[in-house]
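seq:
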Amino acid sequence: MESVDTLDDLLKKLLGAIPEVKSAAIVSAEGLPIASALPQGVDETRIAAMTAALLSLSERAIIEMGKGDFDQLYIKGSEGYLLVMQAGPNAVLTVSTTKDVRLGLILLDCRRTCEKIAQLI
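struct:
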């Protein structure tokens, strides 16, 4: 089994493994950027803050509806998906994909990446 040394390596591996994944970022639950592989011109601080807001709202909705603990959120847009997944107690993975991505495959790969992130943080 291949060992991955850094969070940046994990993001590069995720983007390299699935062509439909266009960008990814790891952010703290407080909304601070930890690591990112975002397109040129995208503000990682702004993405981190929005991810934290999505996480907070999702956690509140899950609790309010009695659905247990937050695990993942996905948002479908006309050009693709935005996935937000818990990566241990202190981090969140956010991933942007094209509209042609196979969701089952990407969710599985993202879950594995989240487990590795949780081990590193």
